[in-house]
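Key result, reporting period 2: structure in, sequence out.
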């Protein structure tokens, strides 16, 4: 799991770029093919031209004036009206007028019935005819083809004639090529029309805008005329209502007399003025009555007190009784003096007392007269007060009656005034409408008429080619993903370690034999080559990893998962390289079914291993020596047609190995593929190191995993894996800059310069 995670961590940008570089031919081919097909398709498309014009719409504001400014139309206030104009320009009625005025029914561009039949149309016609004939023969109506809908996808309307249906189809085609748009920030409407001919596009667009403006003027004229007629009829009713209101006011005035005076600039009722005056008189009468009652009470109080002193100078008794009271006072003083001087029986005192009594009687009589006068005055004032109250009540009743009459009069006068004002308003509007009938103008204007476009608007070759490039890139990426997912071979050492937990001992390049020389001989014939260095590196790794026991040979078993993976070439090359390094090397061909060492060494096919195991020959008699490298070779020999697997069982092959272990440093066993036969499992028990050869990029991972599973079942742990037939130029693309294999060619192709002599 750790190895797997480590390998996935290396799926970085470098690996992605390496994959793209490795698949560059696929990318170029896919993108190039897509662009080429797009260019062919673009070339077959009929070019289309778009004529354009700009309409400025005048929108009436809330005061009834129009605003035609193309700046700011306000915060969305006029958007519904602008959208209405857009829908009018795209309306079916307007398009139908253009179709009829320009005779577009006879234009094949808009009338599909006039176009030459296409291959698909002819095929569909044939199918339709065949189905109809089959329905007639069989009697099954459901077999017959249903009639196609019109161009807009809407079935023909019942009751419409063929000409009308044809016009509707042409109208739908015309609307399909029309575009009306508003940017939402101005009163300008951008109108465009697309056609295969530039002159036709401009002509249709100009006809459309002119018809739109003419319809606006006609609609406004009809509206103004209808409004004027309605106003004329309404004025007759209003005049009659105004006359009726005036007549009602006059009749009410004649029927009910309402007295009015102008007082202080305002109109007041006489009854209300009289009530105010009487109310003032009533207040004065109440005050006079209260004053008289007060004097009466005072007079009675004085009378009851016997004519005592009167302190109020305003009392009505003060003037009448002043002299009597003064005289009475003087007499009482005189009596007091005389009584003090002469006594009460003195004649002078008695005379004064008689005068006092007489004076008192006179004073009492005078007070009685005053009380009677004051009582009479109180009654008079009270009667006057009651009379005023009665008058006020009568006037209030009259005033209320006058008020009701006045209110009714005011109401009639207001109705007459309102009728007069409404009549005046309608008269003014009637005059305005009559004037507008003759000066109607459209609420829009064309800034500039449409001109025939100079360049086609469709197809947009740059955009389509750009889309084709993008689509080709996407297809290329999909093709890369598919190609990578279909690759089942092993190419990356990290992948081998992550998948199987085994190290990669080396990578052997795919160098084919030249000039008739065997491929394994290149390790000696060209020691500076990449091939020789790769084999040498594998041998070094094996020697470093596995050391032979003391006085015993290192037994190396070379096998593969499948045939033709280069295991024999690897074994022969290792033998030559190690022999060249000074080791005593024996290589034994252990493949009973397909022996191949004779193809790599200058030796005879027999005698060999079978003769030794049969006891026919000794080991020394069967051994052969390669003349080029000095490698001792033990071929398979003859008599192996029956595939005696028991040759390799313990007790048979062990004696051979025991006899040669002390004579060689390295013994290499070239064994059959472990994924195909089981001979290698028996020999692996006698080996010190098991090397599995896997062809780079070819051997499926599942086959390698199955081979390792068999070795694991036999309790054999391989030393590692050697990737054979590696294409280093392609291998570098799998690791980008993270693998040194890309630098092998440049490094080993370098030749050192000869050393210069120093005199």
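The corresponding designed sequence is given below.
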């Amino acid at each position: 799991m750790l190895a797997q995670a480590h390998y996935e961590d290396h799926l970085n940008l470098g690996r992605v770029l390496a994959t793209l570089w490795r698949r560059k031919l696929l990318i170029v081919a896919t993108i190039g093919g897509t662009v080429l097909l797009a260019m062919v398709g673009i070339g077959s498309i009929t070019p289309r031209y778009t004529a354009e014009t700009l309409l400025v719409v005048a929108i009436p504001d809330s005061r009834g004036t129009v605003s035609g400014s193309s700046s700011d139309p306000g915060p969305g206030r006029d958007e519904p009206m602008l959208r209405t104009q857009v829908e009018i320009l795209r309306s079916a009625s307007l398009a139908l007028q253009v179709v009829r005025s320009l005779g577009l029914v006879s234009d094949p561009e808009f009338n599909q019935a006039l176009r030459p039949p296409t291959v698909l149309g002819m095929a569909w016609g044939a199918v339709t005819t065949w189905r109809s004939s089959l329905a007639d023969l069989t009697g099954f109506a459901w077999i017959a083809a249903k009639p196609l809908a019109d161009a807009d996808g809407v079935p023909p309307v019942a009751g419409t004639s063929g000409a009308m249906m044809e016009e509707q189809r042409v109208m739908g085609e015309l609307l399909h090529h029309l575009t009306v748009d508003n940017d939402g920030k101005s009163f300008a409407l951008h109108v465009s029309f697309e056609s295969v001919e530039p002159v036709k596009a401009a002509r249709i667009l100009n006809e459309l805008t002119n018809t739109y403006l003419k319809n606006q003027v006609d609609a406004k004229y009809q509206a103004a005329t209808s409004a004027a007629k309605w106003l004329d009829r309404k004025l007759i009713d209003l005049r009659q209502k105004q006359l009726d209101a005036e007549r009602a006011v006059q009749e009410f005035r004649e029927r009910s007399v309402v007295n009015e005076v102008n007082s202080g600039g305002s109109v007041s009722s006489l009854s209300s003025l009289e009530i105010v005056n009487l109310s003032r008189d009533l207040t004065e009468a109440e005050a006079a009555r209260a004053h008289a009652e007060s004097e009466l009470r005072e007079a009675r109080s004085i009378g009851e007190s016997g004519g005592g002193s009167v302190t109020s100078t305003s009392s009505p008794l003060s003037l009448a009784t002043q002299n009597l009271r003064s005289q009475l006072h003087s007499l009482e003083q005189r009596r007091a003096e005389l009584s003090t001087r002469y006594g009460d029986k003195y004649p002078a005192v008695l005379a004064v007392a008689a005068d006092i009594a007489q004076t008192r009687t006179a004073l009492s009589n005078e007070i009685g007269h005053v009380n009677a006068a004051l009582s009479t005055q109180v009654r008079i004032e009270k009667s006057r007060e009651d009379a005023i109250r009665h008058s006020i009540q009568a006037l209030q009743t009259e005033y209320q009656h006058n008020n009701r009459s006045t209110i009714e009069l005011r109401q009639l006068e207001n109705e007459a005034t309102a009728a007069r004002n409404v009549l005046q308003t309608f008269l003014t509007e009637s005059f305005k409408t009559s004037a507008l009938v003759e000066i109607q103008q459209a609420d829009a204007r064309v800034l500039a008429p449409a001109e025939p476009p100079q360049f086609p608007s469709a197809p947009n070759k740059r955009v389509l080619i750009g889309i084709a490039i993008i689509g080709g890139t996407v297809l290329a990426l999909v093709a890369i993903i598919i190609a990578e997912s279909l690759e089942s071979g092993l190419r990356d050492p990290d992948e081998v370690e992550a998948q199987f937990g085994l190290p990669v001992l080396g990578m052997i390049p795919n160098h084919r034999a030249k000039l008739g020389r065997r491929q394994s001989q290149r390790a000696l014939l060209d020691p500076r080559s990449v091939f020789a260095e790769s084999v040498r590196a594998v041998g070094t790794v094996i020697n470093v990893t596995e050391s032979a026991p003391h006085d015993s040979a290192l037994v190396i078993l070379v096998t593969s998962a499948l045939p033709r993976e280069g295991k024999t070439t690897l074994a022969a090359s290792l033998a030559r390289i190690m022999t060249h390094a000074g080791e005593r090397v024996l290589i034994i061909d252990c493949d009973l079914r397909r022996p191949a060492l004779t193809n790599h060494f200058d030796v005879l096919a027999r005698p060999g291993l079978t003769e030794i195991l049969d006891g026919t020959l000794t080991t020394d008699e069967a051994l052969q020596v390669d003349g080029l490298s000095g490698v001792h070779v033990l071929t398979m020999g003859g008599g192996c047609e029956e595939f005696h697997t028991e040759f390799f069982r313990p007790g048979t092959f062990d004696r051979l190995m025991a006899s040669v272990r002390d004579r060689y440093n390295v013994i290499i066993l070239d064994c059959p593929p472990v994924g195909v036969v089981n001979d290698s499992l028996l020999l692996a028990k006698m080996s010190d190191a098991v090397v599995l050869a896997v062809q780079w990029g070819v051997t499926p991972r599942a086959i390698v995993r199955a081979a390792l599973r068999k070795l694991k079942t036999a309790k054999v742990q391989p030393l590692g894996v050697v990737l054979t037939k590696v294409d280093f130029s392609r291998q570098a693309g799998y690791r980008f800059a993270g693998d040194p294999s890309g630098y092998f060619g440049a490094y080993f192709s370098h030749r050192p310069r000869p050393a210069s002599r120093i005199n």
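The longest helix spans residues 347-437. The first strand starts at residue 49 and ends at 57. This case is discussed further under Risks and Mitigation.
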